[in-house]
Design brief:
Layout lengths: L3 E8 L5 E7 L3 E3 L8 E10 L4 E17 L9 E9 L3 E2 L5 E2 L3 E7 L2 E5 L12 E5 L5 H6 L2 E9 L2 E8 L6 E5 L3 E6 L7 E2 L8 E5 L7 E6 L5 E3 L2
Parallel strand pairs: 1-18, 9-11
Antiparallel strand pairs: 1-5, 2-4, 2-15, 3-14, 4-13, 4-16, 5-6, 5-12, 7-8, 9-10, 11-14, 12-13, 15-17, 18-19
């Protein structure tokens, strides 16, 4: 059953605000990453003074394929060309390990596509696996702005959490983090973000260590974002 995680933001800052959720970077293991790993703006919302902004995140993860119109950098939008739901590797109550989803990735017609070659699931604990083929080169990936990564469900549709430029013939173990940064300012959903560019006024929301699935936040008159106990 898919879990839902909720963040409510009470705006007591004294002015209208725009909020954004930026995903924390996943851990990527086992393959050569040809670029930085970029966080992505997962969702945005607005709230007038005294009003409340709402975010709902569904705990269903996706493999994401896409491109960017220019070289990936802070503020660049991801154009998603493919999504597939995935299961993360886990351990059952009896200690049996359940591997995560494995999906092949091929290049065709100047874009990445999923390869349905029925690879045996081999995602590690809390991860899924993307296996790239040999039908593109590092130069192809860079010049055509190929991107792969992880996504999650927002209002029933897949939205990127993070992305990076892949290399050929690699096996990437991608472990998404159920962690988001709540920030204020003008952001576009799906845009790549450098964590350093978000500034000091950001709040880290870690659902993995939270007491429940609902987080209440207040933005105070001095602009701070504070989780309410």
């Amino acid at each position: 059953m898919v879990k839902k995680f909720n963040i409510t933001v009470q705006n007591q800052s004294g002015a209208a605000q725009q909020y954004a959720l930026v995903a924390e970077k996943p851990e990527v293991r086992g393959g050569n990453v040809s670029s930085p790993i970029w966080s992505s703006v997962f969702a945005t919302a607005q709230a007038g003074e005294g009003d409340t902004a709402f975010f709902t995140i569904e705990n269903q993860y996706f493999a994401i394929l896409g491109t960017s119109q220019c070289r990936p950098q802070d503020g660049t939008n991801v154009s998603v060309s493919g999504t597939q739901p995935v299961e993360l590797g886990s351990t059952r109550s009896d200690g049996t390990k359940e591997p995560g989803t494995t999906i092949g990735v091929v290049a065709s017609n100047d874009m990445l596509q999923f390869s349905y070659d029925h690879s045996n699931p081999s995602g590690q604990s809390r991860a899924f696996e993307l296996k790239t083929k040999t039908d593109f080169t590092h130069d192809d990936a860079q010049s055509k702005n190929f991107l792969i990564g992880a996504g999650a469900s927002l209002n029933g549709r897949p939205v990127p959490l993070a992305a990076f430029v892949p290399g050929p013939n690699q096996q990437y173990q991608i472990e998404p983090k159920n962690v988001f940064y709540l920030v204020t300012g003008q952001y576009r959903e799906g845009a790549l973000v450098e964590e350093e560019s978000m500034g000091y006024n950001r709040l880290r929301v870690d659902f993995g260590n939270a007491r429940g699935n609902n987080i209440s936040v207040t933005q105070t008159p001095d602009g701070r974002l504070i989780i309410q106990n």
